[in-house]
Each structure stands twice: as C-alpha cells, then as structure tokens.
Structure prediction request, 859 residues.
Amino acid sequence: MGLPLELLVEIIQFVDATSQDGQLTLSSFGLTNRALIEPCQRRIFQEVEISYIQSRANRSVLAPILIRDGDTSNNEFTTGHLFGKLLATSPHIASYVNTLTVRVSQGSGSFDPFDGPPAGILTSEMESFSLYAIIPQLYNLKALLTYSRSPKPWDEMGVRLKGFLVSSIPKFPRIGLAFFQSVPTYVFCHCNNLEDLCVISLKPGSPGTTHQSHGEPNLRVLEVGFHTISAGQPMTDWFRGPYPPLSLSQLRILRVSNQWCMGKHIEGLLLLCSETLEELDIHLRTPESVPNLSSLHKLRHLTIRLRTIGLQAHDQLIRHPLQTMGYYPFQYAVSTLRSLPWTSFRPEQLHLTIHLSVISLLNFNDVLPRLLGWSALTTFLNDDLALPFLAPTEIVLQRTEKFVNTLKSVPMSQSDLTEILDGNANLRALKESGSPKLVCGLVVFGDAMPLSYFLANELLDLILDHLDADLTGDRQALLSCALANNALRSMAQQRIFRHVKVTYGSVYKVGVRTVFTDSDDTTGARFLGIVVANPVIATYVEELLVDVVLLGISSQIGACSDHDVFSLYGIASRLAKLQKFSMTSTSNIFPWFEIEPITQLFLRQIASRVRCLDIPLLQGFPVSAFLGSENLCSLRVQTLKWDLTANGNYTVSPIKLESLDIGCGMSSSHDFKDLKRCFVSPEAPFNLSRLRSLTISFANCAGKELNSILSLCSGSLEELGFQTKGFGYHESQIPSFASLHKLRLLMIQSGGNDVWRIASMLRMLPHNQQYNQKTDPLKIIIGFDISHTTIIAVPSFSWSDFADSLFHLNMTGRLKRVKLVFTGSRTFGMNQENIHRILDKNEALKALREKSIVIFEAI
Prediction:
C-alpha cells in the first residue's frame, strides 16, 4: 500500500521513541524505504538519554565528585562515550536532538589520586570528557536534564563539571538538575530563556555576595523538592533576595515532589504564583503537609498523592478490630479539597487525580475497598459544593510490595482493579452515576506513564486508518490491536469486518437450474455462525463479496440457494449497513435465466438496498430488478436485459448513476443496442446525467454507438474507458470527445495497429485555448496487447501522428501524464529497453518521455 510520505510521517509520530520496542520499530521502519530514514532517525534521536558513573576522585570523603565512563572490566556499562562516537561518524544526528537526559548511577569504587583513572576511562575533570563534546554539537537542543537516584550536593562536584554546566544551561528553556542538591541560585542569573526547571533544592546566595542577572527569567513550570539536606528551610527563601534570579510570577505548573514537604512551605510558594497557577501536584503524608489552596482561583489540574502501608497497620487491626488496616491519608485529601475556592470556579474547571500508593496491603482484594476514608472522599466528590466544578476525576492505584530494601510492582489488570473497587458501594455508585465521571487506573512502580492513560479515540482511529484490512500484514496488525484493549478491539473489528469475502460453490440441479451451495470447502456458513454468535460484527459490514469457486471432487455439499436456509440469505438479512454487494467468479459465467427463482428474488432485493452493485458473473441482468433502486449509484454488470413492457406503468424515479462498468459479456451489436435502450428510452430506469466514470468493455463497440452513450453524460464524465477494436476505418466512425471538458482519466485498450485512430481521437479532446469552458488536466493510459502477429509491427505503428497529438495536448496545457502499457511483450522477447529504443526514434515522443510526461511499461 503506497501512502504519501506526509501520512507515513504522521504514523511515525505515534510510535513511542523512548521505549526499546518503539526504537526497534522505528529502526525497522527506516530500513523499508530510503525516504523514511530521515523521519525515523528524527524520532529516534528526538529524546536521547546517555549514562555515566559517579565516584569520588579518591577514597577521601572530601575528594570532589566526578562523573566518568564505565569500567567494563568491572561490569560498568555506560553510553555517553558511545553517543559521542556516533555524532562523530554521523554528525547530522545532532540536529535531531531536542532533549538530552544525563543519567548518573552510583559507581563501584574510587580512583587513586596518584595513579589516576584506569586506562581509557575518561572523567568529568578531563577536557576530553565526552559530555563536553556532545552538548555543543546539539544546536537544536531545548532541554538538558540530569538525574540520579543518589543526588549529591552541588558544592562537592568537580570544578570543571560545575563550570561547564554554568556556562551551558543559559542556552536552554528547560533544565533538570535532579543530580544535584542545594544548587546555588546564582547558576541561573543569566538564564533569561529558562521556562521549565526541575531541582531538588536551591541555595540562596550568601549575604554580601550578589549576582545580578540581565533579566529575571519567568518560570512557567517548576518541579522542586525530591528530598533535601535542608528540609526545614522554607522554599520561598530560594526565590527572595535583593536580586532574585528566578521569578514565579508567571508560573503555570508547580510540582512538589518532596513527600514530607510541610503545608506552610507549599503555601509560601503559592503566594508567589497564585494569580497564574493552573496545575498543582503535591504529596500528602501528615497533618502538617496539608496546604491551604484558597488562593488558587485559576487551578485546572490538581494531583494529590497519598500512601497507605499495610504492614504498619497489621497490629492496629488486632488492637482495633472495628477498623481496617492501614495508614489512611484520605482525610488529608478531603481537608485540602475543602480549602479550594470552589465558588470562584467555572463549571467543570477542575480535573482531579487521586494517586494512591498501596504498599504491602495484606488481603488486598478485601481490604482495599474497605479502607477508611473512601466514604469521606466519595461524599465530598458528590457534594453540591464541588460537584458542578469537577471535570472527570481519576483515581490511580500504584500497588507495590516491599522486598528487603526495595519495592516491586504487583501485576494486576485494569478489569481486576475495577472489580475490586466495585466492592465499595460508594465508589461503585459514584462511578455509575457519571457525575462526576470517575475513572480508575493503574500505574506500575517506576513507570512514568499510568497504564490508564490512552490516546484519544480520534488518534487511535487515525493510526488504524493507515492499515488496509485487505492486506495480509495489515490484517494481522489489526488482529493484534483487537487483543490490546476494549477501545482498540471495537475499532479494529470495524476495519476487519468492513469488507467481508465469503465463498460458495455452484452446482446444476436437473429441474431446478443453477444453484449456489455451502460446502466444507467454502466460508459462507462459517461467517453466518460468527454474526449469529456476535451480532455486533454484522453492524460493521459495509461491503460483502461473494466469490463463486469450483468445488473439489470430495467436497461435502451443504445447504443450497434454492432453500431459505441458505447461509447467504441469513448473512445479508443481518447486514443493516451494507453499502456494496459483489458477486464474482473466475471460473464461470451464469446466464440470468439459468439461476433458480429464490436466488433471483434475493438479487432483486439486494439491488434495491445497496449503493454499489458489482455482479459481473451474471449475463442478462433484468432491467426490472432496478425499479425502486433509488440508492444505487455504482453499477457493474456483464449485460442488461430489457424486460419492461411498453404499456407498463413505471412511476419510480430514474436511478442517477455515478459509475457504470458494462459490456464485458456482450457478444454482438444487438446486445449493445439492447443496452442503449436501457439508458435512452423513456421507460429506462437509469439517468446518466451525473455519471462520473464510464467503462464500456464491449470489444465490438462502434464509435457512433459510444457517442450515443457519451451524449447522455458528457457534462459530468471524468473517467472513460473503452476498446477500439470495433471502430471503423473512416473518421466518421471514430467517437468524438469534443464535449468532455471534465475528463481527467482516459483509458484505451488498443485493438492492434490503430495508433493513428487513437491519435485522431486525442486531437478531438477539448482544451482551454480552443473553448471558453475550462478543461481539467488529463491522464491517459493506453494498453497494447502484444502477440506473435503484432510484435513485428510495433515499430511501424503511427507513432509520429500519436506524438503530434500528445505534443499538441501538452502545448495547450491539457495533458498531465500518458502511460503506454505493452502487455505480453516480455513473452515475445520485447523488454523495457527494447520499447524505449523503438519509441525513442520519434524525437517528440522521446522529448515527452524525458520530461516524464510519457511513461513506457512492458509487462
């Protein structure tokens, strides 16, 4: 399936380039097409993470802290130096990097100051350290982030590293310094572009030392306080002083990550940004951590992070049997929520997320819905004070168990969580009431994204729209998507079952005529079983293709079409949204009069239901079957049979077709005259005044007969296909295209050595310089069937006349593209090069080919 590059790039944007699977997907995708290499690399390297090891220069606790490459002989593996080498060999990658994360892990030892580092190990005290070469090359870098599970005081870092960071970070609008504690505020004196800052803690400038900046950066996003060596110091001190290096007057998002941060410290920060703050993320652990949020009139998103520890409360359960286990901070959440200025909020202004971390809760399934505090929380959420101002509320659960000195996630599904929480009557009632909408989700310990987070359905639709269910690979991808979750299951099934193909056999019953049949080799009966068991699937089907196949000698015949229990009848009756019905066969053609009556009645009913009818396996389809088919806009048939009486009373409206493909089953000019009657006579059920696409497959169609059809649709026709075999040798017998101003696609199947005739037809095409009426750009496809009798004559075709016609069309601006297709030429030794060599002898044709206006193809 060839998609425009723009659409492929859109698909790439939905791949998570931060995950290993996403990077492998993008790498594989980039190998499929040269045009995709650059977009895939851009996604892969948009966010880059490199790693180093931290250690001291020697064993003394007073020695400066360094970051260094890993010592592979000591099972230390880092990536900073590897990314530096990649940039050296592929410098174009540097322009793709928008975010660089430097992750530092604890080292396994220290260097001897006299011996220096092991051979080949570079440290941050060396000028050749890879980080110092990487960052200056990333000229599109917008964010520099550092992180470590063991952050260290800024003052203990090596001099060269601190100097490099101080000189580098003023360039970036987003800075993360989670590797450092107590970062001096003077570091930000020249960061005039800084908008997004993440720090553990800051250290104000000491009295008597000032670092006046050239303009106070106004932060928009601030994340602060994982933990700090000066926990008792009010955070507001960091943003005060005679020359405060940072301003919170325009702050929109505040995240306080210190789990034990006191409420009064949060309130102090809020005084500096209450007029603009829209998003707040806080932890509540103790009564002292509860802040007063009454000043946040513009707040739109509030995340409250709570925790309950089952092991601490086990003894409490024994001493107080009327209480359930745990340490329950719900009361702190309710206290915080009550302090909000609800009366100043607009309807559904506040999006609330309650993040509950549950650690080692015994009897989890029974105890979780009985935790003390659920009642108080749900009562408040449903209270008239808050209810009108709450947007959808999300409760996110993080379940972990403590093992020795670490926490590990406990796997559970979304459905399991919902079933457990439904054990709380108040939670269940609140969720089912829909006011406010309550969403329950899961988050895995250590993951950045909750598992309850999904792309909007519109985006999921956009992703799945790029898959073609008719292709094996794409169909398998849709089947995989259907197993992912409920939202994708429905969307994937809609695409899988939008176009359905079923197969049947055919037999001839003496006294009954031709019937179609189920068998153990066909699929019709099986699909009926699917829609009976899953009725919703029937609502997805828009196109049904019936393929009549040859039955095997040992096939077991089932129900036949001369009985009402035939599966096709049951299928069609359930397809309420059916738009297109096709019935084809590669092995046989069936005259209408040989089909038994029940099937004839079924096909008449189908013709009155669908918008598109495609039945090329039937000859002599009766015109009377279309009386009342007002929805029909596209028709493909072998031949039509006129069966309307002259004195019949037909009051139905004519069918305004937009697409017509007819004539491949005609055997004589009499058939074509019968066909004209179906469209020209006053009783005809068809109206071609809006026809946009016409294909006449009758091999012996004469030019004047084709003109009679074109006269009915010349004002609307955009696509025309026909054969030239039946055209006479006099120009009066050649069809005229002078009225086809809207024609965009012309498909001609040559009858042999009649290039001169095609040239005459092309000269009749209207163009802007000849008529006052505007004409559309025209694409022409001309097919030549090459046989042993015509292979020799190809060079002698009237290519000069043909080239003159094309040159004339090109000069008038009407011509867009011409494709000459020589079918069967390879069989007789004429390949692409031979075709080029023969046709390039005509200078005009050669000039048009070199301009890519004419394309030659040998198949």
